[in-house]
Amino acid sequence: MPAVSEIDVLVRSLIVGPMNQSCLQYIIKQRLSEILRLSADNMNLLEKYDNYILKNAAQISSIESALRTITYILPSMILLSLD
Question: Three-state SS across the chain?
């Protein structure tokens, strides 16, 4: 027997009658609480990332500098090797 989705339950409750409003409110409340929880988790990750960047600015700057140097040197080495 196939699994019954929330949409199926909602549609059936709308067809049946008086419970449709409470069923819809319940589903909406569940989804809103899930969205709020995920938003809070994302904000927490952004805050952690921000703190990490601020605490490790010197290391990040040196990594960026090394990558810039590589991007200048590598293309010229490739061009020289093609000759």
Answer: CCCCCHHHHHHHHHHHCCCHHHHHHHHHHHHHHHHHHHHHHHHHHHHHHHHHHHHCHHHHHHHHHHHHHHHHHHHHHHHHHHC
Amino acid at 8: D
pLDDT digits (tens, 9 = 90+) for 12-66: 666 655 556 677 778 778 888 888 888 888 888 888 888 999 999 999 999 999 9
Residue corresponding to tokens 């080495």 = 77
Q: What are phi and psi of 80, to 5 degrees?
A: -65, -35
**Domain assignments of the chain as residue spans, ordered by start:** 6-82
Can you tell me the distance from the alpha carbon of 75 to that of 83, in angstroms, rounded to the nearest whole number?
A: 13
Residue 20: what residue type?
N
